[in-house]
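Our example copied in:
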Amino acid sequence: MSDDSTPDTSQPAGTDSDTGANAPTLGSDGSGSLRPERRASRDKLKADARRVSRETGKNLGKLDYSRPRHPSEDEPENNTQYPHNTHPILVPGIAIDEQRRRYSLDKVIFAVAGTLTVAFVIWGITSPSSVASVAQTAYDWATMNVGWFFNVVAIIILVALLILAFSSYGKIPLGKDDEKAEFSTFSWVAMLFAAGIGIGVLFFGPSEPLTYFISPPPLTNDPESTEALHGAMAQTYFHWGFHAWAMYALVGGAIAYAAYRRGRSLLLSSIFQTLFGKRQSEGFAGKLVDIFAIVATLFGTAAALGIAAMQIGTGVSIVSGAGPMTNNMLVVIICVLTVGFIISAVSGVSKGIRYLSSINIILTVGIVALVLFLGPTLFLLNLLPSALMEYLGSLFDMMGRSLSWGAETQEFQSVWTVYYWAWWISWSPFVGTFIARISRGRSIRQFILGTIFIPSTLLFVAYGIMGGTSIWMYREGAAGFSDSMAAPEVFFTLIDNLPFVEWLPFVAIVVLAIFFITSADSASVVMGMLTSRGDQEPKKWVVVFWGLVMSGIAVVMLLLGNASALEGLQQLVIVTAVPFAIIMLFIIVAWFKELRTDPLALRREYAQNAVDNAVVAGADRYGDDFALQVVQTDPGDGANGGIDSEHEDYTGWYQRTNADGEPVGYDYETGEWADGWTPETTDAEADGDDEPEATSARSEVDGQPESRVTE
């Protein structure tokens, strides 16, 4: 397809340039009939055309689309109007930091979320037993009656994302065309891992497989059998693997696309603009969604931090031999760690959070490697591939378990599988928003496959080594192992049985503390963004405020209700997964709908239509001797294939405005604003300037180009 200057369209493609007479329509013998040697199957021609169009369209996202030229005097004038005179397929994307948006504290969201927080804390202070009772009742109802729905949602999300990743939409970037990833792959994976899993990798990695080995899921294997060993690993992988990370990837990918490709706020509500319109998504309904995300993040993280502090305290008690931890000692631990995560949070994502996450993943890999080489190495090397194959082989079986399998299976599902699905769903606003913040510049395919499979693979290896070692030690009668151990006890008993590493428990305490810090600082930053209208770098005092509130809730629940109040809080957070599971289904619909109008998707569709038609027509008329050329066509006969490129679905999103929402001229090729605004200036200064003389420096789009054939 030639990219030279557009030919003079007064002479249609397929004419004799010397005589001006029409070239033969069907063949070169001048008779108007098709030469016998060039008579071919029309179906084969069409199939070849589709293949050529696909090959041609593969690299369309990398082409340099120059601005349209002015029509010549002989060409009809085109009256098509687009924002900034820019056709939808020529828009390179809009990043959130290129928008003229005033970031400030959203007083409505801040006030409502704060009021709900204070009300809950007062409830917990005055009647902690009531909190636990109400939470237990709501939790039991949700897991018993809505458990099947959580299973269905988990399956739909995973399947939808895999379809999206391997479709043509997978090449669309979470950013502008050709934008590079903001963080290195190592830093990105480290932050994914720290925010999404945190302290669980060391505590639940050894303990959960051991639990399933001793008490397998109903109707599966005999306790403590060889089959139970592999089944225990598969069940653990099922709860912590692909499904969990798919939930995070859905929310994170949709938010990242809206913010870094469409230029919207880094908010959960921005996803739904394509479904419900700008007024609803930025109005009352959108604020409700963002308030819900803040409350779920705040209480979910507070409960997790309180329980994590208790687990760290148990570890300190085991290592130091100081006896059971008191509540006062736990409060001291929380306060010390709070100082650490606030310092990390206010330093920003690119500094404190990234550095701590990188350090922690290195230390975690080191601990897991020591367990592998100092533990039952040969046993573990045999177990890892077997456990993975068992997981993949029994995946559909585990996905299908429900109440229909009997009361015992239902009870197991409620305590374990449904609990995990609800927990991942309730945490997805927090983790998803954070993942969106760190994933700018990656393609949708890289993002989805990376978010689902890289952390899952790391977890499979880590949990296989830690869980396999704990089961092996239990079977061999290692010192300290029993069938009724708490999660922290299993981990510290495991490393206590390793040779030559008396110092390892102290390193483990440091790793656990950093996991605590990286989860909490990520949550503080996310809540700061949600209450600051999606500001990527929220004000430090807002971040500090939410960090203190989060720790304060954990401390109050510990002092007044001990573990029962924290568990009640955790159960209430899980109940919030019921409405958010429905929201996640809407996210799938909204994201797929918006991708249909993405500039890169439109370019490929235009290319396929144009090349399809041109190759079939060229082979039909000229056999092998034809080339493709871009010429202007009559309206309706172009490469758009019936797409109404002037429709608001295609054009409404890239009209640039000032901070007050008023349209302002913009040149997409130079990045210049018609009123002279730059990121270094303020909107107040820009508003004082004269009105721009024109909405844009771009010329009118000269028709709808189509690939035509010439001899």
In short: The first helix runs from residue 42 to 57. The CA atoms of residues 166 and 445 lie 7 Å apart. The domain at 105-319+328-396+409-595 is CATH 1.20.1740 (Amino acid/polyamine transporter I).
